[in-house]
């Protein structure tokens, strides 16, 4: 058959139409409890969006296998926000226009800030997946939205407290970060937690001014020399993603392991070990939102872990898997208990219910709908005996509710 | 006949846009409103590229200036003067474009101007991301849709689809303004400069002045589009003027056709239609969208508008159209 322009265009148009059809067909099924998932599935942010999608799909599969919600199957309707507020708003308006009343959205703050003002008009209930920005539960607080994520004061204040408890012998800490507001917030929260716990024990601790590195930089050697020359035995590193990998790789040649007694990474958790393998630092603490081995005895965590290994063949899931699973679980549990999709009934149900999720008991502070679950920290490092080249040595958990910042719904936290 | 068919099609499409809220999903209405704004934005870019022969890769920065001006003034409680705020945003965008043009156009054109404007837009984006008063990386959310007063009549744009219809009217006026500029004496002079700068200068045209005015007008319209967009999206972030925004008009113009006044608008609507049709294909959407765009650009080097004009001409007079197609490969801007 000869392919001319007309054939090509006709076939392409038919193809696009046919591919778009499943969405139309799904919308006509009607009986299922539909949950809209809006996340970033294209561009650099898709790394997190893919974890969120996997976690939500695992939740839907598990819940449907257990009979769904009051006999009705759960259907996840996924849309890409293209990591822009207008992409998120387009997806939100399309899904609300199709009658969807339940939403999970995450994780970038600006995209959530784009949809939050629309919740009232659309009369919907939302769980914000993995979001950490303070604005979401403070100045931009919306009573229809629940943040299943960890704020900086909560997880890094807890981190500082844990380090003060675990290493009282360390009286001087160095910090390293990029000049980015979110990373400054993390550093400040860690410092605050560390100092408060140390002072409570009647001791004093010095935290040096942060050594700043360029965001997205590739050469960190000068800054590594500076922190090694600081004489501090403790180091809190707040670089993220690719920056952190380059930094640890370069720091290895400076003998970082030998220069510091305690090395702390803010939140890169297993991304470092997976990237560096046998070159992982000898011992490194990190915060994580969910680590299955720290939740032994929690059947939901075990099941989600198994499902993820089956799905991706990866024994060390990113914490977004657990958080996104629990976001769907929170919504499904509320619908089951309230027997309704009506936000007026769902909101008080979510506020009072504490379902068992992969992260433990899922509970929100009533005043500002901030997540008040447990905090998890892991210590891992190089291990020649393990085929991966690294192992997890230690885990610690703290009650997150104790570290939640003051609730100021509707106004900025001072 | 060509004009009659194209005019009728345009009228049908305009009517479909105005009536969209009566039958379409609210997501589609939002997308249509966004597309109208970016189509006007693309049109302003093509005034510069297709008519004055200047390529700017930083037009997103001017769009962002308009959006932020509107967001800040609305946050400041000036929503009662909405039409004045649009004028203010437009004027600021025009002034910034004029200042850049005065410095840049004498010294650089072509790729140098493109890179310079791209660098300035990125500088603006990074600066906005560091100013806490403007919300830093998270921008300014919850922008209110204000009331618009014309004489004694006041319309609450926050109600229902009022802001969508306001966008229809505002974008139509901006398109008419662009048409008037492009098809008047000023537009014809710009085309002369684009085709042969030295010859135009020899004929007594102050080429620098004309290009500077075109740069200023294009910047003002881009900022105006940004100011309309802020209350529509109800949030502005530094990424509103990022590199992707600056490449949008280039992509739309390539797709729709740089040789036609309507090309950038056709490109904008076509691109949105492709994106919306493939929205459920998570993971492969970019591949399909990119493949379709590549196919269109390869099959229709003069863009969709060029192909449409050729089709209508062929239907009207097949023999003449064929002879004309053989005779011309590079075509100037066509009304």
What does this structure look like?
The complex is a heterodimer of chains A (414) and B (335). The longest helix of chain A is centred in the N-terminal third of the chain and has 23 residues, at 5-27. In chain A, the strands form three sheets. In chain A, strands 6, 7, 8, 9, 10, 11, 14 and 15 form an eight-stranded mixed sheet that branches. A five-stranded parallel sheet of chain A has the order 2-1-3-4-5, with helices on both faces. Mean pLDDT of chain A is 90; it is low at 1-30. Chain A has two domains: 31-150 and 301-361, Rossmann fold; 153-288 and 374-403, Response regulator (Rossmann fold, 3-Layer(aba) Sandwich). Chain A contains 14 helices and 15 strands. Chain A is 43% helix and 18% strand. Chain B is mainly α and 335 residues long. Chain B has one domain (2-327): ABC transporter involved in vitamin B12 uptake, BtuC. In chain B, 73% of the residues lie in helices and 2% in strands. In chain B, helix 3 (59-75) runs parallel beside helix 5 (110-128) and helix 6 (162-183) packs antiparallel against helix 9. The relative contact order of chain B is 0.17. The model of chain B has no long low-confidence stretch (mean pLDDT 88). Chains A and B meet through helix 1, strand 2, helix 3 and helix 4 of A and helix 2 and helix 12 of B.
N-to-C series of helices and strands of chain A: HEHEHEHHEEHEHEEHEHHEHEHHHEEEE
Structural class of chain B: mainly alpha
Q: What would CATH call the class of the largest domain in chain A?
A: Alpha Beta
Largest interface: A-B, 42 and 34 residues
Please specify the SSE layout and strand pairing.
The complex is a heterodimer of chains A (414) and B (335).
Chain A: H1 5-27, E1 33-39, H2 46-65, E2 74-80, H3 85-97, E3 102-106, H4 109-115, H5 119-122, E4 125-129, E5 145-148, H6 152-166, E6 172-178, H7 181-200, E7 206-207, E8 211-213, H8 221-229, E9 234-237, H9 241-253, H10 256-259, E10 262-265, H11 270-276, E11 284-288, H12 299-312, H13 319-338, H14 343-352, E12 356-357, E13 360-361, E14 374-382, E15 390-399
Parallel strand pairs in A: 1-2, 1-3, 3-4, 4-5, 6-7, 6-8, 6-9, 9-10, 10-11
Antiparallel strand pairs in A: 11-14, 12-13, 14-15
Helix pairs in contact in A: 2-12, 2-13, 3-4, 6-7, 9-11, 13-14
Chain B: H1 2-23, H2 26-51, H3 59-75, H4 82-107, H5 110-128, E1 147-150, E2 153-156, H6 162-183, H7 185-195, H8 197-202, H9 207-233, H10 243-256, H11 263-277, H12 285-299, H13 303-316, H14 318-327
Antiparallel strand pairs in B: 1-2
Helix pairs in contact in B: 2-6, 2-9, 2-10, 2-11, 3-4, 3-5, 3-9, 4-9, 6-7, 6-9, 7-9, 10-11, 10-13, 13-14
